[in-house]
Amino acid sequence: TLRIGVEDWVDETPAHLLMNFSVVDDAGRELAMGRDWRALQKQLGQAAQLTFRNTSPDIEKTGLKQWDFGDLPQTLSFERDGLKVTGYPALEDNIDSVSVKLFDTAIEADANLRKGICRLMRFELKEQIKQLEKSLPNFNQYALTFRNIMSPDDLREDMIAAIADRAFIGEDELPRTNADFMKLKARARTRLPAVSQAIVRQVQAVATEYQALINMQAKMPATVNRLKKDVESQISCLVYKNCFTQTPWEYLQHIPRYLKALNLRIQKQPSNPDRDGKNAASIGLIWQKWQDKMNNLQQTHMDIPPALQDFRWQIEELRVSLFAQELKTPMPISTKRLDKIWAEMRF
Predict the structure, then answer these.
(1) What is the C-alpha separation between 103 and 125, in angstroms, rounded?
(2) Above pLDDT 90, what percent of the chain?
(3) In the prediction, which pLDDT does 322 show?
(4) Are the C-beta atoms of 241 and 158 separated by less than 8 Å?
């Protein structure tokens, strides 16, 4: 019996079998045409950015430190050179201020709006933030643990930014009016102490497992070069500069377990190196597919689908399942299950 897997199929479809796309504006005029729809999206996205820069609609403002710029509509349409252009207004974080800016897509606008809201809220609650910066418990200990990854200043900012994102917004809807922003501010003020404690607990848990893993890594013999490279690669994907803000809250709490699973893998590998290698190869194929897709979307300036972002963490759960079953996973997971999820994903 001949078995044919998904990986055996040719990834690229012959050009003559691809659909030809024609992009038109509201007036029916053709803006672009081609068979590569991702290239068209990139082309038109760059054109929109250029249009926004050259047009500079009245809504765009800079140097803001308080909500005194009116409401932010979900979309804004205007004409340029006879063409109707739609932009997505949001706040952009400029560190020392925020700006109102038009973005190409709603997803990009929402991502920037979240960061902008957090920065604006930090201006509003600057005394509370200043006190928090001075009183992070055991900070020097964490700075020492992560010294080879980020500077103390970078770690402090990463922790404060993670606290701000969770306390100021969390799961709340992003405000687009001053009234909603002020309501959010009232909730944020009351949530700040509890969220600060929660983030510090997570940093402590990550630091504990990270240090234990680094100690175990130092004991690995030179003969397990493949394993050493695999361990280094996985650590760098879990603990890195700004990891506490860039890791979504729902997954941040699992990072200690992922680090512990990696530690257990190192301990178990000598007793069954063949099984370790087989499992590593299976995960490697899935990880590479995910990495290639992410690189492709980023290079073409495409939005990253939430399902693709979630898939990355399902790979981590697969590592736990294969290398450290005793730690358990929150859901059933297997290579076959991930292959099925991947096959059903639409990009």
Answers:
(1) 27
(2) 74
(3) 98
(4) yes
